[in-house]
Give the backbone structure.
Amino acid sequence: MLDKKINQEELEISSNFDEKTPIFMMNYLKYKGFVYETGKTGKETYRAYMEVVISFFLLLNTAIIFKGKPMATIIGNTEVQLRDEALIVKYANKNEFFKLLQMKDYLRAPSAVALSNSRLIFSK
């Protein structure tokens, strides 16, 4: 299973932001071909996960501002395979992101089972 452990050291960067600064999380996703636990493809399993996550977003000041398929590497190593999808989520501020992390049912949502590789990249 994919490692979904939060890098606390990197997460501390956001704690220095003021409460008026929006933050963005870029999700860079590579789906599994087939997920035995769900009997579906990784993309289908992740779609079901996102349906659950949207309910959490509705409780916060959060929105998906971009979702798309990476198409080509313009600058950088072209031998590295592109991921299947990029997703950018905007949080009104750091507090909204931390509220999401503290919701007990949020981290139980099974995104990792759908993915063979992913990155969650904090941006400002």
Summary: The longest strand covers residues 23-31.
